Amino acid sequence: MTLDYLIRILNAKVYDVAVETSLTNARLLSERLGNNVLIKREDEQPVFSFKLRGAYNKMAHLSAAQLAKGVVAASSGNHAQGVALAAQKLGTEATIVMPRTTPAIKVDAVKARGAKVVLHGESYSDSYEHAQKLVKKGNKAFIHPYDDPDVIAGQGTIGMEILRQHQGDIDAIFVAVGGGGLISGIAAYVKAVRPKTKVIAVQPTDSAAMVESLRAGRRVTLPTVGLFADAIAVKQVGSETFRLCQQYVDDTVLVSTDEICAAIKDVYTDCRSILEPGGAAAIAGMKKYAEKHRYRGKTLVAVACGSNMNFDRLRFVAERAVIGEAREAVLAVTLPEKAGSFRAFCEVLGPRSVTEFNYRYAGGTQAHVFVGVELSHKRETASLIRDFKRAGIAAVDLTDNEMAKLHVRHLVGGHAPGAVGERLFRFDFPERPGALAQFLRVMNGDWNITLFHYRNHGSDIGRVLAGIQVPERDAPELERFLNRIVELGYAWIEETQNVAYRLFLGLNQG
Predict the structure, then answer these.
(1) Do 108 and 204 belong to one domain?
(2) Which among 186, 235, 427, 467 could disulfide-bond with 451, CB atoms 3.0 to 4.6 Å apart, if both were Cys?
(3) pLDDT band at residue 408 under the 50/70/90 scheme
(4) Which H/E stretch holds residue 106?
């Protein structure tokens, strides 16, 4: 069977529409991991993913009579674009069924190539079932996104290119897996030509149909799949792809959403390309696998399989990337509700940079602060919590708490009945390590901070919103404080009369 797929791949018709993509040396990532990291850049394809290889190869093997009737496909986006482009090239009509959750950028791209789009269901599996009805109704050819020998062979040309582009030994090739067509084609070719090279499957923890199937020894159907990496969100893998993966895949690795976000950042840093989540999964898996197995001096290839990223998702990716690369800890810190507590908190932090600080006075004897702290390595979190404990400050690690990261960080606030005499200020300052701590040191330690919000957004300007209870007798000292921070390069605006503050955060007047 290996020989059969080798012949299919060598004779695949893909280069009428596909290009031979780069095998890029990821210099910075290589230095960090201590290995030679190469990224196969399928984001360079005309449809920004590998999918057009298999789609075109399948359609190019259809008869003229079949093409005249048109084709049907089901896809979360990338395969759809491949089918649409292939249909344009071959002069046939394409109908694509896509999940309603598909990012708009992919839907629009498919329509722009002349294909008819039908939105149906929440996942690929739902769309697949509807597409089968259209196939029967119109007696049309179905272009499967992964479970078809011609599609698998088309994707296998990536493996052929990798081995041609890197003549030396390759220790492992990491491939993101949805239905399994990409890894099946690559593995079939690689194992026929260089059997010692490992082929490793990477899947998100919440869409691990292939990993679960390989463990069970049979195809498993997942009840639900996560949709962050929508391009590889499949409830059940193909029968042919499962058979090939059982035969050729050496190992598997699961990656989290945060780890995928960190990988998107890694590829951007090295290649200036923004991959979609599914497109970056292989890089995330390679990083995790190399660390777990203590790889050093190895040659590792990761397939960047797509870059159809929704622009609106970039905010989420940027926020979660620092956690995914273990460069930020998210903590819940409990401080005594008394003047000077913030200063004690800053002394424990020392030179570490604060990436986020959310607090709202609520009365009582304790203050609960939601804080993000920049780390040099993951083990530093436990050390920091011990330092807080020695200073009499309780701290809980929320870094892996999904609800805290998705919701709680944005909900710290509300009216504070006890914040009588509160004045609200916005402060802007040059973003640099220690700038926040310097601000707190300059402030009068006897004043009660009733609200504090800060988040490092990666810009050159840091922004703080602070509520301060200042007794009337301290008005001259407040003026001196404001003048002092201007000298230090901080700009300020008083927002006590701002309507948003008065409605949502100010003293509730009933």
Answers:
(1) no
(2) 467
(3) low
(4) helix 104-112
CA proximity to 364, closest of 396, 332, 395, 335 = 335
**Contact present, 420 and 467 (Cβ < 8 Å):** no
Residue environment code for 3-33, b if the CB has 16+ CB neighbours within 10 A, otherwise e: eebbebbeebbbeebbeebbbbebeebbeeb
Sorted by sequence, the CB contacts under 8 Å of residue 456 that are 6+ apart come out as: 353, 354, 355, 356, 372, 374, 431, 462
User: Under a CB-based contact definition with an 8 Å cutoff, are residues 70 and 140 in contact?
Assistant: yes
Look at residue 433 in the predicted model and tell me its pLDDT.
65
**Last residue within a domain, chosen from 320, 355, 371:** 320
Q: Are residues 308 and 335 in the same domain?
A: no
Per-residue model confidence as pLDDT tens digits over 20-41: 999 999 999 999 999 999 999 9
Q: Which domain holds residue 482?
A: 326-504
* Residues paired with 108 in a beta bridge: none
pLDDT digits (tens, 9 = 90+) for 329-339: 888 888 887 77
Mean pLDDT across the chain, nearest whole number? 88
Q: Is residue 148 part of a domain?
A: no
Residues 341, 325 contacting (CB under 8 angstroms): no
pLDDT digits (tens, 9 = 90+) for 352-361: 888 788 877 7
Helix or strand (DSSP H, E) at 441: helix 435-442
Count of the separate structural domains present in the chain: 3
Q: What is the largest CA-CA distance in the chain?
A: 91
- Token pair, residue 114, equals 């002349």
Q: Do the bridges between strand 366-374 and strand 328-336 make them parallel or antiparallel, or are there none, so unpaired?
A: antiparallel
- The closest alpha carbon to 152, from 4, 14, 2, 9, belongs to 9
What lies within 8 Å, CB to CB, of 307 at 6+ separation is 43, 48, 49, 273, 274, 275, 276, 279
**276, 308: one domain:** yes
Q: Which among 285, 320, 355 is the end of a domain? A: 320
Counting Cα atoms < 13 Å in the Cβ hemisphere of 317 gives 23
Helix (H) or strand (E) holding 158: helix 149-165
Q: At what angle do helices 51-60 and 149-165 cross, to 10 degrees?
A: 130
